[in-house]
Specification:
The complex is a heterodimer. Chain A is an alpha/beta fold. The N and C termini of chain A lie far apart (40 Å). Chain A has a 6-stranded mixed sheet, with helices on both faces. A 6-stranded mixed sheet of chain A has the order 9-8-7-12-10-11. Chain A has a two-stranded antiparallel sheet with strand order 13-14. Chain A is built from 8 helices and 14 strands. By secondary structure, chain B is an all-alpha fold. Chain B has a single domain (3-205), classed as Serine Threonine Protein Phosphatase 5, Tetratricopeptide repeat, CATH 1.25.40. Helix content of chain B is 70%, strand content 0%. Chain B is built from 9 helices and no strands. The chains are: A alpha/beta, B mainly alpha. Chains A and B meet through strand 4 and helix 3 of A and helix 4 and helix 5 of B.
Chain lengths: 332, 206
């Protein structure tokens, strides 16, 4: 393992200390491991809190700021935060209008956020949870933990963040988040595995000439392994998987994210976006907005995900609303 | 179970989890994300610190403190699940005179808590595969005293752990692997087996 770290044990604390130094307009509570906006709770605004295991940066701490999250709770690498962290975040951002928790659908995250929601309820704080489960690689069934939450988390956080900023109430913000999730689908392909600082070894072995199709964002293998093929063919498979699950008709508009998993150069991500863009154009689907870059990563994994969100005008207006965070900034 | 035994159990778990950190991590690396050893070590060393640092009126209080600490420090699914186990044991063992039969009932309630929270049944390739037979064996042997019941439970948990090897995971992170989870022991079942073995060791000392 070659990584910039001092010790594996201090990796998260050291990284958060750097994040705090780089972003003096945010507050990093090192004891509780909560990142909040410097201005604290905004009276009468619905608070927006997310969190999850670390290793997916800039998700979630990089999305704290005006027009997006009020707080993020980073857990250990690939380990959900604990309920105490989430409760501390809810207390910090509650402005009297309640708080929406954006939770990616993983067993640990769901349990810890659920416990936190119960603790918040004990405190008389109103909390609504939006569960993100956009990854079509793993199908929902009664026998699995359900679909994983990946790229759509960014869409949910941006769009609900804008809705909270314009003054929408708790129920409306939560419902909107659920609608964004329901309109979004993602699919990822890995070119390499990733290595957690703690284990020091790749999470899975992938031969030099093979790719992992349908990979998750924790280094867990996907649904099948194939020989590397031209990007055009891989992109076609990803788009097909996404649209098979949530078809878009000709003339519909979409927000499309081509997201790097951590170790893939932007030039390759643009190349993939070009292919995705042609494939959608062939089907008459219009890309109304897009993002290309590293937003929901998996440490040092090479690969990318494609997220397609069927967008109505409200989604687009809220997407365009000003946002000022470390990782997403426009209109301000 | 008295307070000394409860503390000794938590200490024995902390020791065995630390000794087996690499083993648990290796199992988890095969079918999960390779952090189960580190998370369990962090949780139980914190739990040991918490129960050592305060007076307790009953074994239940010791175990409840351990459970709360696990929830606060572990994260992932292991934190809430093992936290629920020890908090449930804590609630059920409030009276100082609680004996082996009471511990059997408390373990059954803890298992029920895990099932409710995680939604897993025997055969899903989770900690339940070790926990459920351990509770059955403990209950069946509880008339023979704590030492014998705990030994029987540890053996059943280890047998349950071995039974997870050929299974395909249907719950938890490993369920995302589907068929590729076959052939690996479940890390949660492995840590559960360590916890029951630790109980057998401290119970056997008396």
């Amino acid at each position: 393992m070659k990584k910039f770290l001092n010790t594996a044990e201090s990796f998260l604390s050291d990284s958060l200390a750097g994040f705090a130094a780089a972003h003096p307009d945010l507050v990093v509570d090192a004891d509780n491991r909560v990142v909040t906006r410097a201005r604290g709770a905004v009276p009468k605004k619905v608070g927006l809190v997310s969190g999850g295991g670390s290793g997916h940066e800039p998700l979630h701490s990089g999305f704290v700021g005006a027009g997006m999250l009020d707080a993020a709770c980073p857990g250990e690498v690939f380990t959900s935060p604990v309920p105490d962290q989430v409760l501390a975040a809810v207390r910090a951002v509650d402005g009297g209008a309640g708080t929406v928790l954006v939770v990616k659908n993983y067993t640990g995250d769901v349990m810890n956020f659920q416990l936190a929601a119960e603790l918040a309820d004990d405190d008389g704080l109103r909390v609504e949870t939006v569960l993100v489960d956009d990854d079509v690689a793993v199908q929902d069934s009664t026998f699995t933990a359900g679909r994983r939450g990946t790229g759509a988390t960014l869409l949910v956080e941006k769009i609900t963040g804008a809705a909270a900023a314009r003054g929408d109430g708790l129920g409306a913000v939560a419902d909107l988040g659920r609608r964004v999730n329901a309109a979004s689908r993602s699919f990822a392909v890995a070119l390499t595995s990733c290595t957690t600082p703690g284990s020091g070894r790749p999470g899975f072995d992938l031969p030099d000439d093979e790719i992992e199709v349908g990979v998750g964002i924790h280094g867990e293998p996907g649904r099948r392994r194939e020989k590397l093929r031209p990007a055009r063919e891989i992109a076609a498979d990803m788009v097909r998987a996404v649209l098979e699950d949530r078809p878009l008709s000709s003339g519909e508009e979409a927000i499309v994210i081509v997201n790097g998993l951590g170790a893939t150069p932007l030039s390759e991500l643009y190349l993939v976006f070009g292919e995705v863009s042609s494939l959608l154009a062939e089907r008459g689907i219009r890309i109304a907005r897009n993002l290309v870059g590293n937003y929901v990563t998996s440490l040092d994994m090479a690969g990318c995900s494609v997220t397609v969100c069927a967008a109505d005008q409200e989604f687009l207006d809220l997407w365009d609303a000003p946002v000022n965070t470390p990782a997403l900034r426009w209109g301000c | 179970m008295d307070t000394d035994l409860a503390r000794a159990w938590v200490q024995a778990i902390a020791e065995t989890v630390a000794q087996n950190k690499e083993y648990l991590t290796g199992l988890d690396a095969a079918i999960g994300d390779g952090d189960h050893g580190a998370n369990m070590e962090r949780g139980f060393s914190a739990a040991l610190e918490a129960v050592d640092g305060r007076e307790a009126a009953s074994a239940g209080e010791v175990l409840a403190t351990a459970g709360k600490t696990l929830i606060s420090r572990v994260g992932g699914a292991s934190g809430p699940l093992y936290g629920t186990v020890f908090r449930t044991l804590g609630k059920r063992l409030a009276a100082p005179e609680d004996g082996t039969a009471a511990l059997a009932d408390a373990l059954a309630a803890a298992l029920e808590g895990v099932r409710t929270m995680g939604g897993a049944q025997v055969g899903d390739k989770t900690m339940v595969d070790a926990f459920s037979p351990a509770v059955e064996a403990f209950t069946a042997a509880s008339d023979s005293g704590l030492g014998a019941a705990a030994r029987s439970a540890a053996e059943a948990a280890e047998e349950g752990l071995r039974s997870t090897v050929p299974l395909q995971a249907r719950k938890g992170r490993a369920s995302y692997l589907g068929e590729r989870s076959i052939g690996h022991a479940d890390p949660g079942a492995a840590s559960t087996a360590l916890i029951f073995r630790a109980l057998a060791e401290v119970a056997g000392r008396g």
